[in-house]
Every structure is written in structure tokens, then in C-alpha cells.
User: What shape does this take?
Amino acid sequence: MAFDYPFGDPRAELAQRQAAEAEPRTARLAADGGAEAGWRSNRWVLRSAGVRFAMLYAALFGLSALALVSFLWWATAGLLDRQVDAAIRADALGLREQWEEGGLTALVPTIRDRLVENVDDDAVYLLVDARLHRLAGNLEHWPTGVTTTGEWFELPIEREGSRSLARVERLDLQGGSHLLVGRDMHVRARLRGLLTDALLWALLVVIVLGAAGAFVVRGLFQSSLADVSSTTKAIGAGDLTRRVPVSRRGDEFDHLAETINDMLDRITRLMGGVRQVSNSIAHDLRTPITRARARLEDAALHAKGEIDLRAAVERALVDLDGIVAVFHALLRIAEIEAGARRSAFAPFDLAPVLADLTELYGAVAEERGLHLQLVCPDQLPAFGDRELIQQAVANLVDNAIKFSPPGGLIRLDGRGRNMVQIVVADQGPGIPEEDRRRATDRFFRSESARATPGSGLGLALVQAVATLHGGDLLLFDNNPGLRCFLTVPRHPPFPKKAA
Assistant: This one.
């Protein structure tokens, strides 16, 4: 239903008033937005490393040029002033000696002779009596303002009808007479002005060259980092095959490129390792989980009593315990690689540890028809986590027992000077040379070991323990069998400071 308003629609007037009030606010917001955008733009320029390096280069270049100009000024204009001062002092000293020897009778002719002999026509002399009446010299009257003896004055003078600029010194003589000795600085002032103009123009040229050099440095800096920026953008987009080009000049940018490329290679290897571990976990755990599920399902459908159900549950628990052991081993390796166990590092004797392992695994070896032999000194100092090193050696001995044929010999050897070396050698099938580099990868198992129970994490854990201690794990052929060299430190890497 529509209503007619006799004095106009109030809703239209309200809308017009709101629009009028909104226009200044919109303009103000636009202006604020433009100012904020300009501030952000200026801030981005100042945050640019290339701009900062260019400004630093320009500042250093300008300061160097200013220092050079200052030195040139001091060495030229300053030298002229010093030479004038030295000439005036020598002249004044000679005239004082003439006064002391013969008084006014000797001083007046000397001043006249020096004015005649002055080839450059720049000498200024004035001898006056106590009432400042002129006795000799080329000035008409005593200049005002020259009231102190022993000070330098630069003042305008009128000499022979022309005005000039002179640098003078006042001497007070006995009897109330006064002597003014100086040099006309008009020519030298013009020379100094020319020199000043030349240095100022030179400074201006230096500033222009500095600014141009700053732009060149900024361009070179940005071009040198352009490859790094484009490569990192490509890596961020998912292209892990990109690498920073190396110019082979051997400069800092080449070192940066090599470091970044090494980092990218390691990231690629780590991601490949993550994918491999994920695939291995999915592959190796799928079988026991599927087997446990099948057994439980079979028991649920065909079990005839409690005994059959209990047997199925126990077999499933064995499979699940194996899965739990795999995850426990993965967590153990992750804990070791994170360095969380370094707080337990301490000196200890490794000889009893190897003896206990020999006694423990000796019985297991005899059951399999093997002989475990220990060769170790009575004392073998080592430094590290005793429990981790014991577990690593136990993994090596367990692998040797697992893969050795009956009647074989397993040798456990401990020795070392700077580094403790633990050697476990067996006479089993060994590891092919092409598989030794991957033997310490998680879940890796060679073709000859696939029929043997295990998860493929034993050597990975040993490698993690060795890396944590600053050592290494090396695998060699024993002809037949495999020799494993585990190295751990004998002493702390850095001696502790005395309290």
C-alpha cells in the first residue's frame, strides 16, 4: 500500500543526507588508503637489501670523496694561507730587528726599500706614531679594528686608490709607534675561489657518479639474487628439481648457491626418505594387520569354543606386538636423531658392556650352532650414552646371529685410540656392494634377507646412534660374510671448563 506525503518523501531526503555524509568519509578513506599504500611502498623500498646496499655504497663513496676534497683543500688553499702567514712573520721579524738596531731612522728606509723591491706588489706596510700619524708604508691610514698585538686580521683595505683584501699582523714598537705588516690576498682569494669552485664541481660529479654506482650495485645485487629468488619460488611451487645456477667464479654468491643446492639436495633426499618410509610402513604393516584381522574374523566365524577363540586372539596379539615393535623402533630412531639423549652422555668403560653382550648372545649363538668370540682389552674407555651404544652393538650381534649359517664364527672386536672402534664380523651371506649404501635406510631389506624375520630397522637405529655420537657405521665384505665397523668417541669432544 503506497502513501502520499504532502511535503515530499522523508525516506528520499534521509537517503540524500546519508549519501552527502558518506562522500567526505569515502574521500577520507581513499586518501588514507593512498597514504598507507605510499607508506607501505616506501617501507618496502627501505626494506630492500639491494636498496640498502646501494645506499651504503653511495654513502661510503660520498664520504671518501668528501675526505679527498677536504684533503685537497687543506693541501692547496690551506698551504697558500700558511705560506702567507710564514712570509708575514718573517717580514715582521726582520723589521723589528731593524727597529731595535736603528729606530725610526733605520726602519723607515727599510720599509721604502721593501716596497720598491716587492715585485708581486702584494706587500702591505704601515708605520704610524703614537697618534696614528702615517710615517711610512703604502696605506693611507690605520685600519679600524686592528687593536690587538699578535693576532691575524683579514680586512678590506684601500691601497693606492684601490680596495682590496689583506691579511695583516700588528706590532707595537717602543715609544708608542705601531707597525702593520701584511700581504694583499686579492689574487690568492681569487685563486682560492677558483679552487673552491673546482672542488665543488668535482664533489658534484662525485655525487652523480656515486648515485650512478649505487644504481649499478643495486642492479648487480638484484641480478645476482634473481637466480636464488626464481629457484626458491619454483621449489615453493613444488618443482624440487630446480637448482641455483653456479657461475664458477668462486665468489660469495657461488658459495651461497652451492650451499642452497646442497640444502635442496638434502631436502630432496629427506622427502624421498619420507616417501620410502611411508611406502615401507604401508607395505610391511599391511601384511601382519591383514593376517591378524583374518585370524580374528576366521575365529569369529568358525571357532568351536573358548579355546579356539583364545588361540586366535593370542596369534593376533603376536602380530600386533610386532607392529607395536616397529613403531617403537621408529620412535626410538626419531628420538635419537633429534638428539634428545645427549644429556645422558658420560665417560664409561665399554669392555664390560661387550663382555655382557657376549655372555648374553653366546647362549643364543650356541643354540644355532655358532661360536661368538670376543676380542677386547681389559679396559676400553668410551664417551656417550651407555644404553644406546649397548643397544646398537646388540643389533649388530643379533643380525650376525640371524644371518650366519650353522658352524660359523662371529667375532666381536673392541679397540681404538682417538675413536673407539667396535667390529662385528660374521660368515653369513653378507650384503651385496650395490645394497650397502641403502642398508642403513629404514625398512630396507636386501633380496637375501626377505625370507628372514625382521623389520629392516636394525641398521637404521645403529646408524642413528653412531651419528648422535659423532661417529659412523661402515659396512665391508668379510669374504664370506659382513664386517660392521661402529665408531664412537673415546673422549668428550670439548673438555669441560673447571668450576
Q: What stands out?
A: The chain is about 60% helix and 15% strand.
